[in-house]
């Protein structure tokens, strides 16, 4: 089709408008990165910097040498690694069991799982449950209550149902038990789904915040997102956690703004690095269990 003058003008306007919107959403991220690398002496004289004359790693060296921040980083890494592994084991195992026709209690268990999607007991009953289980002020309070999701179980169940039953039958002919079939046959076949869900779980555990605020009172058990939130508030209000206050008192007299921006970059960097390499698994994960024509 031959484009008219009106259509070309309309397309040009759309491109310019979308470019402006994209730039406006990108600028805040670029500003955070630029300020984090700005030399402290320059930022003290030029608070608003779009392109610094002198770059520096002083803010990163400071926060990465601070015990409070490093400890929160290790807690978040533990949640992302151990929590993801446990969630994958529970979700894939439960989904596989529900996908088997010979599982007699499949209907009852599935209805119980669906019930959790429709009804939530609320924050206070959940807190009382965690307290009765003795999980307050433990990292397991951030893992066990969210080990799996009803939606993820249903999606992975649909994925396992698409795997031919002949694979399971041939494995059992070779002498595999049900556990052996699951670990030696089903898990290797479902690596794409496992990779997709591992990303979902890892991002959720890495960004753990609200449950940590509810269940964690000890400074040494706070994940990075909580420490980052306290750091941002305390740098603005001058009141808050004494442990975080030490991060804002530097012998090098670093500007608090550069410290905040550096902490934001470090907290976001792992997901930013991992996502481009595993982005295709997000697309596959969204198609897990979809109906094929």
Shape: globular
Estimate nothing, just give the exact number of structural domains: 1
CATH class, named Mainly Alpha
In CATH terms, what is the architecture? Orthogonal Bundle
Keywords: Cell membrane, Membrane, Transmembrane, Transmembrane helix, Transport
Transmembrane segments: 12-34, 75-97, 109-128, 140-160, 181-206, 259-278
GO biological process, one term: transmembrane transport
Membrane topology: Multi-pass membrane protein
Describe what you observe in this structure:
The protein is mostly helical and about 290 residues long. The protein has a single domain, classed as MetI-like fold. About 70% of the residues lie in helices and about 0% in strands. It is built from 14 helices and no strands. The longest helix has about 35 residues. The protein is globular. The two termini are about 30 Å apart. The model has no long low-confidence stretch (mean pLDDT about 80).
């Amino acid at each position: 089709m031959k484009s008219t003058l009106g259509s070309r003008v309309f397309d040009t306007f759309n491109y310019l408008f979308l470019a402006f919107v994209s730039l406006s959403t990108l600028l805040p991220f670029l500003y955070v990165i630029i300020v984090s690398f700005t030399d402290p002496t320059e930022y003290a004289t030029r608070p608003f910097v779009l392109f610094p004359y002198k770059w520096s790693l002083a803010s990163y060296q400071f926060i990465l040498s601070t015990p409070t921040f490093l400890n929160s980083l290790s807690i978040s890494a533990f949640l992302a690694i151990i929590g993801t592994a446990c969630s994958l084991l529970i979700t894939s195992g439960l989904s596989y069991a529900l996908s088997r026709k010979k599982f007699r209690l499949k209907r009852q268990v599935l209805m119980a799982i669906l019930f959790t999607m429709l009804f939530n007991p609320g924050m206070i009953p959940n807190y009382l449950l965690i307290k009765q289980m003795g999980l307050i002020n433990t990292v397991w309070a951030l893992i066990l209550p969210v080990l799996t999701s009803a939606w993820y179980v249903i999606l992975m169940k649909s994925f396992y149902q698409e795997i031919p039953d002949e694979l399971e039958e041939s494995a059992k002919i070779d002498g595999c038990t049900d556990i052996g079939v699951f670990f030696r046959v089903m898990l290797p076949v479902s690596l794409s789904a496992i990779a997709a869900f591992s990303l979902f779980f890892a991002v959720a555990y890495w960004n753990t915040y609200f449950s940590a605020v509810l269940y964690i009172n000890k400074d040494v058990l706070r994940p990075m997102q909580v420490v980052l939130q306290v750091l941002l508030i305390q740098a603005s209000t001058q009141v808050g956690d004494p442990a975080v206050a030490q991060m804002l008192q530097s012998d090098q007299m670093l500007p608090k703004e550069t410290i905040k921006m550096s902490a934001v970059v470090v907290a976001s960097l792992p997901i930013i690095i991992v996502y481009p390499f595993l982005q295709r698994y997000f697309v596959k994960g969204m198609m897990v269990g979809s109906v094929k024509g």
